[in-house]
Structure prediction request, 97 residues.
Amino acid sequence: MKRAVAKNWEFELYVNNHTRRSSFAQENLHAFCDTYLKGRSHIRIIDMAKHPELVVKNKICVSPTLIVRRPLPQRILVGDLSNTSRVLEFLDLAGRV
Prediction:
């Protein structure tokens, strides 16, 4: 039995704003949400240099790192989010959006 697609998604993307890969991850996450979660997502971009306390608290080791806060369970994905099919599978959305 397939679970229903969540109504609200909350993402935190940890980036180093001085790298192309982090910029690419931001672009990819916004495009992904616009395409697959239109009007159902909230994205918080966190610059690791400006918020080291959050990096330590959330045990972030590399950038870019995506934390999916909602829906539960909370999940973490590392990378630039360029592989859309992988992101869909990771979010359990493959074949449902």
The longest strand covers residues 9-15. The mean pLDDT is 91. The helical segments are 20-36, 52-57, 84-90. The CA atoms of residues 32 and 84 lie 8 Å apart.
